């Protein structure tokens, strides 16, 4: 077990905040045990990623859609960047000494360069790869992903982040519009129900006189008022 | 550029020509239809009907008036004593009916089992009232509806109520009689009015059972040929309440405003019935009753609309029927009644028109109650009115 515990995994996943990440990196710089463990974790993730990246490496499959690509870019930007460490701004000294060399991948124990690069370094090397290849799919629990995204937002996003958030924004807009439509429809249907109106009884006698006066007949009272048990309401 | 302008000009001319042509065709068709009906009307007959309104104001008379209607369970008659003083108005006093024999009404067929019914309550109708119709003549609106829907012609003179009368007939486009009027030859007063259904049967007759033309000062009666004498002078009448219709007559914009608020007030009903008068019992009150008067020039249909629901238990003795998915309580008494509720409103239809007309009116009246889209639209209107700070 490393000294950093869960934070080491978060560091490898790029989920730590700026300050915490700095502290973790500083710790790795002086702790061999944690460095080793971090390397092991990165190798493991690299292998898993390599399995998922095979079609891309072959180049036979078409690239994902632009929307997906932008989202993937946003993950990389949101999780691995901070003030002054945006894409392309990574200083060589930011790499973990002994772990990641500028422009190189993580060196596995076998000595063969891993096809996986750290998000921190992917823009610095001469063989820059697709961001898809340099970043695992976000298959983490939604809670952690959300936390990491919010942390990225809190730290400030670059242009990639802005682009990346347009798609969710559209989705939110669509969901919001649908919710509004359904809500209004439901509310209208409920409000359009039979109103609890007070019970009234037509003033038949007055109606008969009114009908006679407007139709020009003599004002006769219709016997409907006299022989049925209907209470006649007072005249208005 | 020149080509474009010329092309645009041609297209505009074509569109304008098409619109003008359509309007001309529509006007020609409508004009022909109206003109053919009006041309078939006898101007002399129309003049007599118009003069009946003036005669009703200027001729002093007294007598007994009746209203007889024929329904499925026989004829029913209501009687009332009338006395008119020019410049003042007409007193209506309930009168004990003479039982047994029906009024001397010319009728093609009389169903058995007639019953006579008394009117109740003494009332006074001032001459200053703007309401005129039927026995007191025709308003211009009613006359316009009559000539629009029927051909008004003279028929052979006849004797009615012991007096010589000119007979005016309103005929349908197929030539059958839909109504008849008997106008006193000497005074122009309308003595009888008859409404006839499609089968040629009289369904409602109103008029004088007895009439006497009095002197303007209330002195010696004017004895006319064939007139019945009812006494030497007009008896002193007790005080009476003025019989006036509701005074809040609704203008077109007020009707539109009520429609926007959910009140259902169709402009037209089946049978060429047109809305010609709308009144409200209490001005601008939500609990008021709106009286909608429809007519085709002959038959009169009143629809009373008020907010609320019906306590159906109180309609014992009424015929319970279903129409368009709603429960309608009907009763054929002296006149035809139909009552139903829906959409938070109670509708009461009252008419002396034939049963078929009453049925079609009930069916044609928009329900707006139970259907999905109707309920949705009603709800949206309500939500809008709740959200409107000026509503």
UniProtKB/TrEMBL annotation, chain A:
Q: Does the keyword Glycoprotein apply?
A: no
- List all Low complexity biased stretches: 97-109, 142-152
> Which residues does the UniProt record annotate as the domain Putative zinc-finger?
6-35
Bias class Gly residues marks the residues at: 77-96
Q: Where is this region: Disordered?
A: 61-160, 216-236
Which keywords, in A-to-Z order, does the entry hold? Answer: Transcription, Transcription regulation
Q: Does the keyword Transcription apply?
A: yes
Query: Which domain of life does the protein's organism represent?
Result: Bacteria
Residue stretches of biased makeup (Basic and acidic residues): 125-141
- Name-wise, this protein is Zf-HC2 domain-containing protein
- UniProt source species: Actinomadura rudentiformis
TrEMBL record, chain B:
Coiled coil feature spans: none
Principal localization reads periplasm
Provide the leader sequence positions.
Answer: none
MF-aspect GO terms:
antisigma factor binding
MucB/RseB C-terminal domain mapped to chain residues: 260-363
Its GO CC terms are: outer membrane-bounded periplasmic space
Where located?
Answer: Periplasm
The record places domain MucB/RseB N-terminal at 47-215
**From its record, what is one biological process in GO terms?**
regulation of polysaccharide biosynthetic process
- Domain of life, source organism: Bacteria
Keywords per UniProt? Periplasm, Signal
Q: Where is this region: Disordered?
A: 85-109, 216-239
Q: Which family does it belong to?
A: Belongs to the RseB family.
PANTHER family linked to this entry: PTHR38782, SIGMA-E FACTOR REGULATORY PROTEIN RSEB
- From the Swiss-Prot or TrEMBL record, give the protein name: MucB/RseB N-terminal domain-containing protein
Q: Which organism is it from?
A: Actinomadura rudentiformis
């Amino acid at each position: 077990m490393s000294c950093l515990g869960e934070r080491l995994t978060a560091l490898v996943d790029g989920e730590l905040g700026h300050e915490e990440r700095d502290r973790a990196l500083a710790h790795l710089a002086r702790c061999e045990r944690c460095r080793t463990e971090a390397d092991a974790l990165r190798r493991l993730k690299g292998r898993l990623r390599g399995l998922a990246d095979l079609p891309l490496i072959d180049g036979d499959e078409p690239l994902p859609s632009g929307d997906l690509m932008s989202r993937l870019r946003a993950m990389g930007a949101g999780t691995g960047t901070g003030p002054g460490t945006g894409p392309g701004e990574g200083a060589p000294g930011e790499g973990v000494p002994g772990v990641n060399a500028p422009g190189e991948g993580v060196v596995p124990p076998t000595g063969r360069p891993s096809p996986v690069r750290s998000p921190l370094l992917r823009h610095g090397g001469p063989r820059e790869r697709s961001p898809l290849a340099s970043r695992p799919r976000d298959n983490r629990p939604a809670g952690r992903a959300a936390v990491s995204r919010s942390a990225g937002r809190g730290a400030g996003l670059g242009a990639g982040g802005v682009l990346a958030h347009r798609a969710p924004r559209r989705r939110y807009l669509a969901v919001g519009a649908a919710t509004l439509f359904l809500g209004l429809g439901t509310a209208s249907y409920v409000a359009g129900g039979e109103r609890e109106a007070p019970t009234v009884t037509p003033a038949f006698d007055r109606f008969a006189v009114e009908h006679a006066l407007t139709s020009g007949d003599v004002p006769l009272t219709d016997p409907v008022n006299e022989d049925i048990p209907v209470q006649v309401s007072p005249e208005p | 550029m020149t080509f474009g302008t010329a092309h645009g000009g041609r297209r505009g001319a074509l569109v304008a020509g098409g619109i003008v042509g359509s309007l001309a065709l529509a006007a020609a068709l409508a004009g022909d239809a109206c003109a053919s009906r009006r041309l078939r009307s006898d101007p002399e007959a129309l003049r007599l009907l118009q003069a009946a309104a003036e005669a009703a104001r200027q001729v002093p008379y007294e007598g007994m008036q009746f209203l007889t209607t024929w329904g499925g369970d026989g004829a029913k008659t209501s009687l009332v004593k009338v006395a008119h003083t020019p410049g003042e108005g007409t007193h209506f006093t309930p009168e004990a009916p003479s039982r047994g024999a029906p009024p001397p009404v010319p009728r093609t067929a009389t169903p058995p089992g007639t019953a006579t019914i008394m009117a109740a309550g003494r009332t006074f109708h001032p001459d200053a009232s703007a309401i005129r119709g039927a026995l007191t003549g025709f308003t211009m609106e009613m006359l316009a509806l009559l000539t629009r829907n029927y051909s008004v012609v003279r028929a052979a003179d006849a004797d009615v109520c012991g007096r010589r009368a000119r007979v005016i007939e309103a005929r349908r486009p197929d030539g059958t009689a839909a109504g008849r009027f008997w106008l006193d030859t000497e005074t122009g007063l309308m003595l009888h009015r008859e409404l006839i259904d499609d089968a040629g049967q009289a369904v409602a007759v109103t008029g004088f059972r007895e009439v006497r033309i009095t002197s303007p000062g209330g002195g010696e009666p004017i004895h006319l040929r064939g007139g019945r004498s009812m006494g030497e002078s007009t008896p002193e009448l007790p005080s009476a309440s003025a019989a006036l219709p509701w005074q809040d007559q609704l203008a077109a914009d007020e009707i539109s405003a009520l429609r926007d608020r959910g009140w259902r007030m169709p402009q037209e009903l089946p049978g060429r019935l047109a809305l010609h008068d709308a009144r409200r019992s209490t001005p601008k009150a939500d609990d008021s009753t709106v009286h909608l008067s429809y007519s085709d020039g002959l038959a009169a249909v009143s629809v009373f609309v008020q907010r609320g629901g019906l306590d159906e238990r109180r309609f014992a003795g009424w015929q319970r029927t279903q129409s368009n998915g709603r429960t309608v309580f009907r009763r054929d008494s002296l006149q035809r009644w139909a009552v139903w509720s829906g959409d938070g409103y109670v509708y009461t239809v009252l008419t002396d028109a034939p049963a078929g007309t009453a049925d079609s009116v009930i069916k044609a009246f928009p329900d707006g109650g139970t259907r999905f889209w109707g309920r949705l639209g009603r709800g949206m209107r309500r939500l809008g009115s709740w959200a409107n700070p000026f509503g």
